[in-house]
Design goal:
homodimer; mainly alpha; 3-stranded antiparallel sheet; globular; DNA-binding
Chain lengths: 114, 114
DNA sequence: CGACCGTATGTAATCAGATTATGTATATAA
DNA sequence: TTATATACATAATCTGATTACATACGGTCG
């Protein structure tokens, strides 16, 4: 069972930035990695990831270059910029707050759920 | 500073259901309560909460009645149904999974963030 | 008394990010 | 040669949230 698509909304870019923080990567690889690392629960669609790339490139958080497509389809690689690292840091801080607040709002003091 | 509106997306109904799980309430009160309990960070707009009510009523998760408006504007109260309680239980389970998975994807093994 | 504010609900138009659908292209395995 | 996995891309659509607007009651302050 995969999650409803609204669940990721607002976090897609953060997750992509975290992956690019570690190393340059490309759309297909990032999608597969998110699928694996989410226990098969988060299956980001092609269109979603490529439109996210466009936004983030316009925004200056990432930049792109074509990889040498030795054996296989061409790959467009993405690299995180200094701005991207700052954006990630802010989004991480935001996530830490959201996580705490949503846990309060959704779970509250229900002994069965805490 | 309030959160980006996408952050709540997909959780608005869960938060409303949790409040109604405790007691019947009405739009204005729920909005104020979420604002207080989120340390002023989640300011759900009127239109958002009233359209959410419409969706949830259609869906059968809640039902509604007019309160006796003694001194002040009329209030439309909402009550959670058995179906609503089931929906909440599912959404809670889903949130517990999402929370764990997003924490992995966003924070990973970064010692500074764990 | 009249203006304003807090309370309270509601709809229409719009926005943004995600999905579906569709298309292109290469290399490898059956 | 046909199918499959890899790889990228765009147009049309969906959905939930926002802005903007409208209505209405009761109390306060000048």
């Amino acid at each position: 069972m995969t999650f409803s698509s609204d669940i990721l909304r607002g976090h897609t870019e953060t997750v992509i930035l975290k992956i690019l923080f570690e190393k340059d990567s490309y759309g297909y690889e990032i999608t597969k990695r998110i699928l694996e690392d989410s226990e098969g629960r988060i299956d980001i669609k092609d269109a979603t990831i490529y439109t996210a790339f466009r936004r983030m490139e316009l925004d200056g958080s990432i930049c792109t270059y074509w990889g040498d497509s030795i054996g296989g389809a061409r790959r467009r690689y993405y690299s995180i910029t200094d701005k991207g690292r700052k954006v990630y840091a802010e989004k991480l801080k935001e996530w830490i707050d959201i996580d705490r607040i949503l846990n309060t709002l959704i779970r509250r003091n229900d002994p069965a759920t805490v």
